[in-house]
Design brief:
single chain; 186 residues; alpha/beta; DHBP synthase; 10-stranded mixed β-sheet; 7 helices; 10 strands
Length: 186
């Protein structure tokens, strides 16, 4: 497993995109905590993350390539529009899916909703360059504390890690826009 800096990841961007297309699992920083992810359109890769996290039914969220991807693939209410203008930021917006084939069914456990993020962080530019959504979920087994240090992250079995130092932030705030507005701080 390779550990890359932000600078190394930028230089090797094309090779990393190729690995993601082939089903690689990676750990990356965000504006909140470290995430573990893969190409959200690749069912085999998504299943691998489910196994690593021991999370077999609960849906995953994604980092969208950009706001346009969200508008094209999700139903946006008037309330949703108010939250979209707050992106990028530390929010996960739960929205109804307009195009269910825009992600692998394993990503959201076959539901008609998806949690979407656009972090206020340079990782967003990498996802935009990739052009497809990436799974974003905390680096931990279900019910355990999330990993923050490199030694903890390395134990998780990813193909590569993009590391920028220990993270001590809280996870994103979940805004459920499927039934009005419900806020969940974690």
């Amino acid at each position: 497993m390779r550990v890359l800096s932000k600078e190394e990841a930028a230089i090797e961007r094309r090779q990393l995109y190729k690995k993601l297309k082939e089903g690689a699992i990676f750990i990356y920083p965000t504006d909140t905590i470290y995430g573990i992810g893969c190409d959200a359109t690749n069912p085999k890769a998504v299943k691998k993350i489910r196994e690593l996290k021991e999370r077999y039914t609960k849906p995953f969220s994604i980092i969208a390539p950009d706001i346009n991807w969200i508008k094209e693939n999700c139903k946006i209410s008037t309330e949703g529009e108010k939250w979209l203008i707050k992106l990028p930021g530390p929010y996960t917006l739960v929205l109804p899916l307009k195009k269910t084939n825009s992600i692998a069914a394993e990503t959201n456990s076959g539901l008609n909703t998806i949690g979407v993020r656009i972090p206020d962080h340079w990782i967003t530019n990498m996802v935009k360059g990739y052009g497809k959504p990436i799974i974003t979920t905390s680096v931990n087994k279900t019910g355990e504390l999330f990993a923050t240090k490199l030694t903890e992250l390395q134990e998780f079995g990813a193909d590569f890690i993009i590391f920028e130092g220990e993270k001590k932030n809280r996870p994103s705030i979940i805004i459920d826009l499927t039934k009005g507005e419900k806020i969940k701080k974690r």
